[in-house]
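[09:14] KT: can someone run the structure on this one? pasting the chain below
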Amino acid sequence: MPRVSGTKRSILDAALELASLNGITGTTMEDVAVRAGVAKGSVYYNFSSKDKLFEQLLLDGIGALAETLRQSRDGKTGGQALASMVTAMLELISGNQPLAKLIAAEIFRTDRSWQTHLQTVRREALAEIVTVIRETHPQRPDAELMAGTIFGAVLVGGIEWLAFSPERSVEEVSESVLFTLSGRLTA
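[09:31] RB: done, structure tokens below
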């Protein structure tokens, strides 16, 4: 996430922690203020509404994901690039489980005020995966759908891993995801 300091960072961290426990609907601005150790007015000063607070949190998180994918692909192509991206995304999920859970819960919602902005940033992240797909399969008309499938598989697979098999290494989980995506299960 982009660097912010002081009160704003405390508010974002508190909101993320509470949303991962209670969901966005179950989290109030007052709860966020208490958890952040700030006055409720400070929360509203930094974020004019609960929607604006969670929009910022999600946009920062997906933006960080897009940058992670971009960096992990740098200098790589094809299967090597995809493997690097899957591993990098799993490391990001491992390093910030609450954010991964929040993204998984919100990415497919269509009734939130931030959905348009979130979809724009999501497309940015998926564009990195689309680039890899088009390098190896330039004629595929469904590269965006394939990228979304990969994104979803890694996101949900990462959360599944951390919830039920945390003893496994990132490398093991990455290999499992890549094997599943390879289509070798049906062969």
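[09:33] KT: thanks! The two ends are 40 Å apart (CA to CA).
[09:34] RB: yep, looked fine to me
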